[in-house]
Amino acid sequence: GPSGPLSQPAGPRGPSSSARTRRGASAVNFVNMIDNLRGKSGQGYYIEMAVGTPPQKLNILVDTGSSNFAVGAASHPFLHRYYHRSLSSSYRDLGRSVYVPYTQGRWEGELGTDLLSIPHGPNVSLRANIAAITQSDRFFINGSNWEGILGLAYPEIARPDETLEPFFDSLLRQTSVPDVFSLQLCGAGFTQNYSAGSSTVGGSMIIGGIDPSLYVGELWYTPIRREWYYEVIIVRIEVNGQDLNMDCKEYNYDKSIVDSGTTNLRLPRKVFQAAVKAIEAASSTEQFPSGFWLGEQLVCWQAGSTPWHIFPVISLYLMSENTNQSFRISILPQQYLRPVEDVASAQEDCYKFAVSQSSTGTVMGAVIMEGFYVVFDREHRRIGFAVSMCHVHDEFRTAAVEGPFHGVDLEDCGYNVPQTDESTLMTIAYIMAGICALFMLPLCLMVCQWRFTRCLHPLGTGDFSDDISLLK
């Protein structure tokens, strides 16, 4: 803070110059990163990156739910600009291709490496893997203003395999940037700009640290359960303080992840049905068409008269670093009802319900993240949540992070995927074969014995029929 050594004149009795410059450098860097994200509601947040030599500036979607750095490298109807590998003297071709499917859309491209820097990020340049996208389907979004994607998750989910080093791992290996980044996604209520047709959103990605000016209250941490996606454990869900009362494993079936590249809060089928039932009941003073809850229909009110108060608060309880405790993060309808501007006239405010059903587990997308400052503390294998300085709220309620709450063995809420990799399958096959052999052996012996006794006793003797009865 201002009372620290930075505010003292650098006299002979001041702190050593190395300490001063170190503190100064980090402060300057973070200030430079504030408000370095842009985007449009529902179309993701992007950061500007400079790729190649001389630098080609491109807008890149920030995605904590994947691990490849990929940029458009051929003309496409939705791209204003794209990466020209032939114009970069530092580009190196790796001679491999890559294919990446997402929940929606897919792309394929050619792997290479090039020099990268982030103009409003740490003051470093590094060589990183780049997938040059040559073909794609439902990946780029018309009017979204981004030309590539920055996958910030772990090597395990990188394509074509975990040997392709993700951007953040390259950054750590080649520079002294600390192993942490944090995201403040501000949503549409922050810098409303209707001239663009649909509301623009803003935010900050602090690479290498935590900026205390971006949150209020304290940071609460939940462990990263496994380093592939940013997987966490949800132990309880409430709607307006009412527990959904499900077996907590259901909340994490088959995983729960924090994913800035997804717009909605996505919930497993059973959990989604229970949550919608509870939200519908809480807001029953007004009737909504079923298509609204399925995300297929908009609901509109006269401008400025959205009845926020009739919609409930949704609370997710996350396992704390002490596994017998949890803390809860609560989001408002201002987060889970997403404004859709380009459809509405100026006289109406229209919204889409941004909670949806998932077949791949819970996804805490932008809808959740826009309420909080989220710290991806990779060094300590944990994710922190604090109330964001920029979340949208009203005079009655605010997003909240509160704890601790007590529980027992909350780790048991995690879902364990039945292992079916090849080695396991082989083991199972051998065991089955062994069991078969054990069963077959007495059978073979019996048959042999029977054939043998048949030779000894001609048919029709009493002994034989007794043998038969034993075999029943």
Describe the 3D structure.
It is a single-pass type I membrane protein. The chain crosses the membrane at residues 428-448. Belongs to the peptidase A1 family. It is found in: Cell membrane; Cell projection, Axon; Cell projection, Dendrite; Cell surface. Residues 11-22 have a biased composition (Low complexity). The protein is an alpha+beta fold. It has two domains: 44-177, Beta Barrel (Cathepsin D, subunit A, domain 1); 179-191 and 198-428, Cathepsin D, subunit A, domain 1. The chain contains eight helices and 25 strands. It has a six-stranded mixed barrel. Strands 13-12-17-18-25 form a five-stranded antiparallel β-sheet. Strand 19 and strand 20 (348-353) form a beta hairpin. The radius of gyration is 29 Å and the shape is globular. The protein starts with 16 loop residues before the first helix and ends with a helix. The relative contact order is 0.12. Mean pLDDT is 86; it is low at 1-28, 190-197 and 454-472.
CATH first level of the largest domain: which class? Mainly Beta
Total helical elements: 8
SS content category: alpha+beta
How many E strands?
25
Q: Which regions have little confidence, pLDDT < 50, spanning 5+ residues?
A: 1-28, 190-197, 454-472
* CATH homologous superfamily annotation of the largest domain: Acid Proteases
Distance between the termini: 87 Å
Percent in helix: 10-25%
Order of adjacent strands in the largest pleated sheet: 2-3-8-4-7-6
Specify Rg, calculated over alpha carbons.
29 Å
Quote the average pLDDT: 86
CATH architecture descriptor of the largest domain: Beta Barrel
What about the largest sheet?
6 strands, mixed, barrel
